[in-house]
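Protocol step 4 of 5: obtain the predicted structure for the target chain.
Materials: sequence only (see below). No template structures provided, no constraints applied. The aim of this step is simply to have a reference model before the mutagenesis design in step 5. Sequence pasted as it appears in the construct record:
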Amino acid sequence: MKKRLPAIILLALISIFWPTPLLAKEAVIHVAVDVAYPPYMYGTAPAKGLYPEIIRTAFSLSGIPVAISGYPWKRALSLGREGRVAIGGIYQNLARMAVFDYSDPIYRETLRVCVRAGHGFSYSGVVDLTGKRIGINRGWSYGEVFDSARQAGLFVAEEATDNQANLKKLVLGRVDCIIIDELSLSQILYQMGWREEVETLDLPAAVNSVHLVFAKHTQQTHILDRFNQGLVKMKANGTYSRILDTFIHGTTAD
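Step 4 output (structure tokens):
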């Protein structure tokens, strides 16, 4: 009579010699950002800038592979709404909050009202923009207060492709003012030699938090939770501060 191997030995032999499948890999998260908003986000594939660097690092610390590409902003928004990509570097407003799930803030931008030198005016809020021609970026939200005033026809919004195009229109006197963030403004003025041509009004137009989002119908809140954990790790280990220093106080990483 043949003796049977004890079950525990049989299982051990199977685990040694039976081929086992490789562990399943994490799916790559595809993120769309603005192709022309330096130093925050710019370039095509891979996109560069402050926001792509923060997003890559947060996902890396969460163990999730990511690919970040730049698109014209209206195209990025369209792809995001369809659920084909996540969107990085986006502000909140009521309309978007109905469509997207938001991460914790990755940064906060201070927006300014910028005018030609010598053409300043008293500014205490959006009502002081009544009747003015204002240069803005195509497809952008500037926060709920500004967006609502625009929809109500309080002022005339003239769209351009990016901040540099808007600043050029301002310098040439084609608009009364523009809305632009402090960091982008400082970089463009330095590069173009326009520091003596423009000035900013004292009160900020807005301070807007910036996020990573997924379309609600894609049900990716678990990915956002892991991304948020990566942000926490970045801030705890000093990586977040070093990235800010690179793009804000130093030179951009190319």
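Step 4 remarks: Residues 8-23 have pLDDT under 50 and may be disordered. The CA atoms of residues 125 and 205 lie 7 Å apart.
Proceed to step 5.
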